[in-house]
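Morning - zinc ion inputs below, output right after.
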Amino acid sequence: MPSLPSLDKNVNLAPHVVLLGAGASIAAYLHWGRKGPCLPSMQDLIEVLSLRSVIEDAGYETAGLNFEAFYDDLSSSGKNDDLRVLIESRVYEFFSSLTLPDVPTIYDYLVLSLREKDIIATFNWDPFLLQAYMRNEVVTKDRRPRITFLHGNVKVAVCTNCEVAGVNGRRCSRCGTSMEPSKLLYPVKRKNYNDDPFIKTEWDVLRQKLNRAYFLTIFGYSAPVTDVEARSLMLEVWKENKALEFAEVEVVDIRSRKELESTWRDFFFSHHYMTAKDVFRSYLFTHPRRSCDAFASASLMCEPWHDNRFPHFKTLKELQEWVVPLIAEEELYDKERKSFTGNPLAPNEKTVL
Ligand SMILES: [Zn+2]
């Protein structure tokens, strides 16, 4: 039985799930003006991490080498573990060295665009999401989405005794011992998401949210063939979502609409999807912190709201100040059950649309 999402006092408490792939970090990097180190694709890693001579010295031909297939073979055959470990440590060091610039980045907008009922799940190893999450805590406090790392992350460490995850370099919040860096899960064909307890928990959290989500935004994630398993793990729970026929999928990606339709068709219910090439034109950034509420009002109540698009800010402080009234409204709803304003269009405005 499908279950109708509710809208009480203009509030919808179903989760918004945001899924991030490499394209999100590349978009963030281009948006902040290409300062700092370039973000390599898996194929570019050979040059960026100066791996060519290392691979040749180990007796492999590198002309026209497909790095992803090469790594997959190295890892699954177990033929040259020294080389595999060396490659992995170079990758780890490189991604650990990346930092966000001081200006507001797409990652800052992203963590501020969602509430504590929502989730951002990322396939990326880079530290940008967690860095943005931490530096915006001054304004969000606990009113921020859950974040999960589906392939591990250089900024995350785990205490295996307590099964606690935290920021790499800090001590375990429970037992006080130093934590181990989380493993990075490589894009190989045969991945087992259940092998590592930390990764398994991250997937469980995502799957629970997807199963109840009302909005799914897929940002810069191309669902590569090496991620067949990831795709089926998500699709399985998404298809069981009781609100699926009311839910919306949004794909933010520079590829053509036709390509995106063919990649994500399985996730769409009928025509309930939208695409955007620029995240600032996405529904998520058009109704920051109110995406599910605004969408429920428009689609279930036929009461569309005025857009409340994120402006482009010069400083992080300006961006943080802009979300303060929205957070204050959320606090009032929690304390006094006071309605969200919502700002619906007037009847004469609706006809203009
Ligand atoms: Zn511990």
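Note: The radius of gyration is 21 Å.

O.
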